């Protein structure tokens, strides 16, 4: 993977760690979808569950 992506091992480990938190399952597929890696768009509206200050 390092040769194909030219990323350091620590960066690859961080990506895999982040994807697992976001629902990636190695047993289902070994392909990591970009949606698991990129951050979601933030709308500047507060989340309904947020407490008001």
Summarize the structure.
The protein is mainly alpha-helical. The protein contains two helices and no strands. The relative contact order is 0.12.
Strand content: under 5%
Task: Give the overall shape, derived from the CA principal axes.
Answer: globular
Radius of gyration: 15 Å
Secondary-structure element series? HH
- Strand tally is 0
SS-based class = mainly alpha
Overall mean pLDDT stands at 74
Number of helices: 2
Weakly predicted, low-confidence segments: none
Helix content: 25-40%
Largest sheet: none
Query: End-to-end span in angstroms?
Result: 46 Å
Secondary-structure map:
Layout (H helix, E strand, L loop, with lengths): L1 H4 L3 H13 L32
What are the salient characteristics of this protein?
53 residues, mainly alpha
Can you offer a commentary on this structure?
There is one protein chain. The protein has two helices and no strands. The protein has a domain at 2-36. It is an all-alpha fold. The longest helix is centred in the first third of the chain and has 13 residues, at 9-21. The chain is globular, with a radius of gyration of 15 Å. Helices cover 32% and strands 0% of the residues.
